[in-house]
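STRUCTURE REQUEST FORM
Protein name: 23S rRNA (uracil(747)-C(5))-methyltransferase RlmC
Source organism: Mizugakiibacter sediminis
Requested output: structure tokens
Priority: standard
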Amino acid sequence: MHCAYHAAGRCRSCTRLDMPYADQLAAKDRHCRSLPAAHADVVWLPPVASPEAGFRNKAKMVVGGSVDAPRLGILDAAGGAVDLSACPLYPAALQAAFAPVKAFIGAARIAPYDVAQRRGELKHVLATLARDSGALMLRFVLRSREPLARMRRHLPGLLAALPALRAVSANLQPVHQAVLEGDEEIALTAQQHLTMRVDGLPLHLRPRSFFQTNDAVAAALYRQAHEWARELAPAEVWDLYCGVGGFALRCADGARAVVGVETSAEAVASAERSRDELGLAHVRFVAADATAFALGAARAPDLAVVNPPRRGLDSALCAWLDASPVRAVIYSSCNAETLARDLARMPRLRLARARVLDMFPHTAHYEAVTLLVRA
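Status: completed
Returned output:
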């Protein structure tokens, strides 16, 4: 993939872009294989490649510049904004949205936030694309409510310029620190969800829902979990850290009982909507902490699927999984270092199969999915 920003030294976020893609993928596979050293006889499946360009369904853009000439991209070393509107990681439909967004910023007179001076209003623009439909969701991260009336007044112009735009909201993040968003979300359109179809699943994202940024690789990840679950034929599955329910919905099969657990009530509501559309009567979702749910449960499932954030699993949950009657665990991880740590915490569970999925091309990051079975 050629990137003019990288070639000019304006953006170095893709730290491995100078490496041929096949070499990137091989290096990630080697790195992952080097970590679980205590596990013998692991079956390593071939790594899953990603499209090299246009694979991101979400853009998280820092806003800089001025009201009349806003820039959407990243901050440089001096705190100024580097415009990345033509970044080749974004598909054409996302790239095409940036010019109307800039025009809206100017029309509504939303001053970009100046990090050095600690003044201004607009900190980030977060854009999400549903590839199958072309529908868009936009979120404007503000320091305060000050621009809201003007934003509402000029919103019809933005909707006219972007006919695929379905959901718009403002997020309030008043604190001067490197935090992407705040706790308060203000709806600017009646619709506040975006339907993403991944591997045949209708997944409903609300503004603050977590979702994988690479549709093609996310689909491969769900398929792999489904294949292992079908082979294991469990009577009951728990999907811990379930988000909007991708693993839970994909692993549901006939009369199998599936429980998805997620701290975000908003994500649980989205997962329930998908479940109802699919007619999966034996699937339920619970808004709860994964560790507290497991430790407080009257019984354990046959199969647990865990997909924690980068920090990995809580040590208490590792201990519970290790000592429980759970027959198998599917562990999906975006951080192989914490994955290796957690495997060491569960010695009664043997690493049987593993696979690298390149969710984040041109960087050192990747997703790994593993199958653990009771030793």
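Reviewer notes: The longest strand covers residues 349-357. DSSP finds ten helices and 17 strands in the chain.
Form closed.
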